[in-house]
Amino acid sequence: MSLTSQIKEFALDIGYSKVGIIPADSFPEYAADLQRRQEMYSFYLKSPSRPLAAAEPLSLMPEARSIITTVYDYAQKNFPQELSGKIGRIYQARCYDAPPERINGARPELLKSFLRKLGCQVGEKISLPERLVAAKAGIVTYGRNNFAYAEGSGSFIYLTSFVVDKELEYDQPSVEVGCPEGCSACMKACPTKAIYEPLKLDPRRCIAFNTFMTQERIAGSRIEPEIRAKMGTKVHGCDICQEVCPRNQAKLKSRRPDDEFLVKVAQDFSLTRMLNPTEEFYATRIQPLMYNYIREKKYFQRNAAIALGNLGDPTNIPALALAMNDPEELVRAYAAWGLGKIGGGKAQQILEGKIKGETSAAVKQEIRESLLATG
User: SS3 breakdown of the chain: % helix, strand, coil, rounded to 5?
Assistant: First the structure.
């Protein structure tokens, strides 16, 4: 059996659904697109991922000869409805950038170990343009919503690539859009119009981006009020443009077994508990699903405050009032916004009482604006 066949069969054996291989060439089209839209993607261009360097794999690994790319179908089990309106499916599946001690983090480590046993040197920390790599390897096509699609899985996939120093057998590309002609369901459904034209996304307007990339160290912690009001109950990720896509309907409607871990999480999960979490709730119900981007509890609390405000249910006022006592000014500010969004005499009374002793100028401003909304 050839080296290429051994690699592909092992990858399939450990749970990947598709495998492709391409030469370790550069990706000038990817670099050019990022540079054209550098204002939108400045947060990424300045990140430790170094995407422009990774567009030239040989600059990071001179020995590189091939790129092995894989598709993991993360929608093999059901996602509880109680979570799906709040947490993106890929995060519920616990497969996105999973730590090595978890099953989805162990899978790429197993493949790396196997490659090394075959005598391959494997590159580390090379953040490749995964969708383009997979399309060049013929295992995905593009969707107008900017997602990659694999046959039988739709866009509910996670792509992982491995750069090695061996020349292998290469696959034929499928760099094409596979959407029905004239379809614009994703663009019409996006509440914030983040998909401003086919295959073009402004991340600053994307709900998913705003749930987890709006942190001081990345893109600033402020979420614009216009975006907040359109986030609904999304607290980590957003699947709207995937849910409406005709190419995903077969997967969404298929009968799949329950994920028993998610069933347990769904029984305990609530937005009010996310807003004012105990250490146990944070460790067992937030972190196992939402470890990907956020490391500080206050951002989860902020997102929960927005979601509760958007629900507009007065029964959530006590939870938001409690959050107005949180030591983090970010939490207090967005709890104030949530109270203003719900409105009514009780919310107004709480806001008026809190502004007197508030020491943060930013929180005071949110309270003032919220009082105007409730008045």
Answer: 50, 10, 40
Strand locations in the chain (E): 18-23, 66-73, 141-142, 148-149, 157-164, 195-197, 200-201
Domain ranges of the chain: 1-269, 270-375
What CATH number was assigned to the domain covering residues 270-375? Answer: 1.25.10.10
Q: What pLDDT score does 373 carry? A: 82
Note the pTM of the prediction, 2 decimals.
0.95
Average pLDDT over residues 361-369: 96
For residue 145, which of 229, 206, 210, 227 has the smallest C-alpha distance? 206
Q: Which two tokens stand for residue 223?
A: 């979420």
Are the C-beta atoms of residues 237 and 92 closer than 8 Å to each other? no
Contact, 157 vs 148, CB < 8 A? yes
- pLDDT, tens only, 106-124: 999 999 999 999 999 999 9
pLDDT of residue 374: 76
Amino acid letter for position 141: T
